[in-house]
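Our consortium's second objective concerns turning raw sequence data into structural hypotheses that experimental partners can test. To show how far this objective has progressed, the report includes one record in full. It was chosen at random from the queue rather than selected for favorable results. The single chain below, 217 residues long, was entered without modification.
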Amino acid sequence: MKIFLDSTNIEEIREINKLGIIDGITTNPSLIAKSGKGFNQILKSICKEVKGPVSAEVTAESFENMLSEAKILSKISKNIVIKLPLTFNGLKACKHLTKKNYKTNVTLCFTVPQAILAAKAGATYISPFIGRLDDIGQNGVNLIRDIKKVFSNYTNFKTKILAASVRSIEHVTEVAKAGADISTIPPKIFHQLYKHELTDKGLKIFLEDWEKSKQKI
């Protein structure tokens, strides 16, 4: 499973990217608004830091304006992926942009039928929001499982499943078990992935024993 960071904080992205295991970045209008920085400035900085796909979302609602914004976004960097809402016009724009060889990420997916439509529109990625489904009493991970099962039935579906709205370590584990191609993870959750109390305890014991031995490497 590939790991994308869900962030617009260039300092956090740069630090985590030093590990060499981050495969891409997702952004959205809310994250960019909270950053307090210019839209183009943020995206240029991210694309310079991370060589993998960087999702940048249109804010237009009409088909024509979505295409106009897509052209502007695509000029920022060659690794920009155009993020589109799962609406009638979003699907229409996805189909059009796919034919023009743009990479697309159809976002705000909450059902299998929505995912099917995005795949038929040629989306590079479909982003099911599992955390938001959990918020309303549904099981978001089950949606990942169901989409994976449906997509596996049809060899002409090339769309990758990008698990979004990931809220916990358990989410990361479960979407990996469910077969998600990618999980996009906030930095806070990413830093929890490598931590465990037994790791810390074991390291402490090893270092104490080594110190007692008076040896050197």
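The partners drew two points from this record. The first helix runs from residue 10 to 17. The chain has one domain: 2-213. Both points have been shared with the crystallography group to help prioritize constructs.
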